[in-house]
Fold:
Amino acid sequence: MRRDIFQAIADPTRRAIIALIAVQAMTPNAIAENFQTTRQAISKHLRILTECELVITKQQGREIYYTLELDKMKEIDKWLEQFRQLWETRYSQLDELLTTLKSKKK
Amino acid sequence: MRRDIFQAIADPTRRAIIALIAVQAMTPNAIAENFQTTRQAISKHLRILTECELVITKQQGREIYYTLELDKMKEIDKWLEQFRQLWETRYSQLDELLTTLKSKKK
DNA sequence: AATATACGCAACCGATTGGTTTCTCAAAAT
DNA sequence: ATTTTGAGAAACCAATCGGTTGCGTATATT
Structure:
């Protein structure tokens, strides 16, 4: 079980589920209504999302509400950070280059 | 071939490759030296990364240099945007709550 | 000209994935 | 008390994945 966030968000259905429950907590049946697959398939996706802690559950009677764990989403953001730094410095380098070119023109 | 970025970054080896070539363009052999697998395995990963345009190639003699396409990386950032908005508004709501509590204390 | 190197491609293999169907169980509704 | 409903668990299946080995080819080196 290699359950990590990157593997979890690799599936388009799971990304759609994430987007859905980001707005409000939902039950498996309610989620499944938005897709043309069985509830069991959705249930499996939810298990994967729960296992990597991207989603937390709250039982209420016989219904189980699934909520997005935003803090876990931040881990993706954290990973992106190193590249964001790169593309920002590259842009500033481009800026510098343009500035240099302009000043040379004068 | 469902080659999308999210599927591409799902594999830890591919994420490592991305991090490697983010610094500088590299050949398959040079990349493979950093892992304990065969060059062919790395080559396959590079093909996947190329197919979803996360990486571009530049032939130089018999060597092929692989470079990270930062613009494509931004697409992940773009997807995260919707959730970033959520977690920021939630924090500001928390801030508001704290401010309200403080003013009530007075 | 002959050999070595860098690389992509194809065939193959076991493990994993996403999906279905069937079953069970507990909570609600009748 | 019986039936309906919400949901996880298990068994199964085809497709895909990550890896290996072997091969072909173009560029360098000798």
About this structure: The helical segments of chain B are 5-8, 12-23, 28-32, 39-51, 70-105. Residues 72-106 of chain B form one domain. The mean pLDDT of chain B is 91. The first strand of chain B starts at residue 55 and ends at 60.
